[in-house]
Structure formats: structure tokens, C-alpha cells
Amino acid sequence: MPAIVITALLDVGTDAPATGASRVTVVAPTDLAGVSSTDLADATHALVIGERRHDTLVRRYAAALADRGPAVAWRTFPHGPGALLVLANQAASIGLDAGQTVAFLDAVASLTWSGAWTPSVANLSDPAPSIGEHLRSLTPGGKGFVVTLSGAHPSVEPVGRPVAPEPGPDRGTLYCATPDLLTPAAREHLLAASRCSTVVEVPLMHVGVVGRLGTDRAVEAVALPGGGGVQLPAARGTCPTCATTVFTDFCPFCHVRRTDPTDLRGALA
């Protein structure tokens, strides 16, 4: 089975967080020197992931890593740094081959809610706050804002405003870096926006968020899809070049059209 490592390009400050998974490495988006220190171990494949706003940097890093020999795929997602760490750990620990790992990550990321509570939007640029929300940030005693990063319509909402979450699965558990910093109103707003019912602290998400949210007082949160797991698409074949499972017309690593049909049934991960 083609083994894979995952490199997450995250703007989380000077200290790279402990990932909790031996096959996950964190480097800064601009750190091309990190290519040489990435531990490939026995991996024949590598997946580079990052925030959607770092698309160009992720592509550049993936190209540089490919020069070391592994087959490399890349993905960017509309999620924050802590959320991407959680997703990377999920993908690395599930025991799939390289192509299945990419398909799993695509599937779970598309159903994941991510966002944050922040006391101020003064330095937030994406999603862009309104003038009124900027003014609210300057008002003493405000309840802060809930920022939704994922989905088709990222948004900034003052805490307490009626919540109309986007259609999606009920997710059950909302994972946070420091839930003790949330007021009851902020907690309830986050639960409603994410379609969750409980909040759980995840130490893995204790990462710097200034680069993404503009303040170190923000609390990032992520909610993975609940229910019976993630349904992978039907496998389309095996890559004739790198031997990994392919779920689309082209291998995400080699970009070679698949030629070898395999089991066409979907798989539960």
C-alpha cells in the first residue's frame, strides 16, 4: 500500500505545534527550507495542505517537495489553522493508502464547519467585516463576533444575532482550542452556527491565530461531520505510475489518467 506523509502549511507563529501524528509535519507557508527537513520515512507519497488564502504558497511548496522524489499532491481548504491540523491528523491516522487519504480528506473537509469567536474584527480581513461591525469592535462591553470560515458564504456575525446555519449535517461535537474563554452567549452562537450540541477542548488546536483572525484572543473552533463516517466515492482504478487508488479521471499525485479498473463500490472510512 503506498504510504503517505502530510505536510500542513500553517501561519501559526514561530513555534510549530505538536501534531500528535508521526506522519504530519507543520511548516510556515513561506518556509521553503522546510522541504529539506520533512521526514519522508518510508513514504512514497506526500500531501501538502494549507488554507485557501495560501494557494500559491502551497503549490510552490508541493513543487519543491516533489524534487525530493515522492509523488506529491496538494490541497487548500477554507478552514483555519487549528481546523486543518485536526483534519490532517484524522487523515493521517485512518490507515488508508495515498489516494484514499486524499479522497477522505476531500470528503471530510467539504462537510466540516470551521470558524471562531473573536472579541474584535479590527484586524480581520477575510471574511471582510462591515463598517458597522468594525464600529461594534470599538464599543466597550460588546459580546464579540462569530466568524464562519467554511462553506460557500463565509461570514461575520455579532454574538446574539439570530443564527441561520447553512444546510448541512448535524455534527454533534464542536472542538475548540480554549473553550473556557467563551462566554455563554458566544458558546451558544458557535453551537448553533456549527450544528453542534457540545463543546470539547482539543489541545491540538492550541496554535497561533493572529495571522488568520487578527488577534490572539480569538478562539478557533471546528466541527467534523457526525453520523456514520464519511462515504468515499467509488474508486475509479489504480494509477499506472505510482500504484495508488484513484477516484477521479486523473491521479492527484502524478496527474496520469487511470487505466486499471478496480472495485467500483464506495468505501466507508
How would you characterize this protein structure?
24% of the residues lie in helices and 22% in strands. The chain has 269 residues and is an alpha/beta fold. It has 2 domains: 4-98; 113-223. The strands form 3 sheets. Strands 7-6-5-10-8-9 form a 6-stranded mixed sheet, sandwiched between helices. Strands 2-1-3-4 form a 4-stranded parallel sheet, sandwiched between helices. Strands 11-12 form a two-stranded antiparallel ribbon. Helix 6 links the parallel strand 8 and strand 9 (196-201). Helix 3 packs across helix 4 (98-110). 46% of the residues are buried.
What radius of gyration results from the CA coordinates? 19 Å
Mean pLDDT: 88
Q: Encode the helix/strand succession as letters.
A: EEHEHEHHEHEEEHEHEEE
For the largest beta-sheet, the strand count, sense and barrel status come to: 6 strands, mixed
Helix-strand layout with pairing:
Layout: E1 4-9, E2 24-27, H1 34-37, E3 45-51, H2 55-66, E4 71-77, H3 81-93, H4 98-110, E5 113-118, H5 131-137, E6 145-148, E7 155-158, E8 172-176, H6 184-194, E9 196-201, H7 210-213, E10 219-223, E11 237-238, E12 245-246
Parallel strand pairs: 1-2, 1-3, 3-4, 8-9
Antiparallel strand pairs: 5-6, 5-10, 6-7, 8-10, 11-12
